[in-house]
Amino acid sequence: MDVFDAYEDDLEVIEIVEMGIPRQMYTRADHFYGLPELQFFQRFRLTKPTVLHLLTLIEERLEFPTDRNQAVSPINQLLTTLRFFASGGHLSTVADYMGMHISTVSRIIRRVSDAIARLYHHFIKMPQTLMEQRLIQNGFFDIARFPRVIGAIDCTHIKIESPGGENAEVFRNRKDYFSINVQAMCNANMEFTNVVARWPGSTHDMTIFNNSILRANFENGDYPNCIILGDGGYGVRHYFFTPLLNPHTQEEQLYNEAHIRTRNVIERTFGVCKRRFPVLAYGCRLKKETVLSIIIACAVLHNIARQMGEDEPPLPADINQHELQRLIEDGQIPEVNVIDNQRRGSEIRRNFITNFFGNL
Question: Is the terminal CB of the chain with fewer CB neighbours within 10 Å at N or C?
Fold first, then answer.
């Protein structure tokens, strides 16, 4: 080695000792103005007008007090989070695309997801007035002539890493992977009206419903003359109807056909939401608390997209359509049928079938 090269190396070491390791500076592209509309829609899953509308709702929570240390602007924080929702859940890929360090991306995702999730009560809500209830019932009736339906309910599983600790195994579901079992109800326009995202993957769907505010509201009579439709994993109540296991008469067969076609809207809603935000299908490798915020945030964004009249965006180039569809279906884990011990609910369902489907 040349003596001068050795001398220069010593100077670099002395400089690092005295001044510290030099900061790595990243070049951040302007994706909002730099990308054409279609490419932007494909990579961030929302159109530019919707992103600007969303930004006005959460900007105050994302602003930094100063611009020191290359503070990330609110729009870039939002785009970073949307890019993560559109990906297979790899922070490094998002960091490279957005021109940030992976630790910065992780903090941004947690911060923005929490800000969006706080919009829950503005965009995910049950109908409050009689007119709103009637509109939803009419929407469901137009699907398969099933009357009085105010919502279709089901659960879907979102993959997570093992949370660790003594209770980690309660998050392992019947398909042998760790997950959050998310309960959701939607209207006929495929908008979420209720989302519960906090239960471990091993929890039965009926357990989630029995411990929900939704059940309490129906038990208290807040939604009179209204019906929820669910699959055979739920128990029958006077306001909650499930399909018949063994239909015999024509009216029972008509009931089952109408029930299945009407309830199918919640399964389609899950599919649309997971295709718009593939991270829900691929799963999240972040802390459990962050994952819960991400689930709610994606549900809020789904409703915003529906209300803004947005089409389903094309998949990003790095997402395989067939693999994504397989993962979406993998999240739907049918529950074993609940033994119907609620006689009153069964009698009401039987009378309902006779009155509404016996004369068709």
Answer: N
Q: What is the mean pLDDT of residues 209-217?
A: 97
What distance in Å separates the CA atoms of residue 18 and residue 165, rounded to the nearest whole number?
A: 43
Residue-wise pLDDT tens digits, 34-62: 999 999 999 999 999 999 999 999 999 99
Q: Within 13 A of 200's CA, how many CA atoms are on the CB side?
A: 16
pLDDT surpassing 60 at residue 284: yes
Using CB atoms within 10 A of its CB, is residue 12 exposed (0-12), middle (13-18) or buried (19+)? Answer: exposed
Token look-up 């279609």 returns 38
> Of 127, 112, 39, 102, nearest to 78 (Cα)?
112
Helix H or strand E encompassing 198: strand 192-200
User: Using one digit for the tens of pLDDT, what is the confidence trace for 145-173?
Assistant: 999 999 999 999 999 999 988 999 999 99
Using DSSP, state whether 183 is helix, strand or coil: strand
**How far apart, in whole angstroms, are the C-alpha atoms of residue 128 and residue 193?**
11
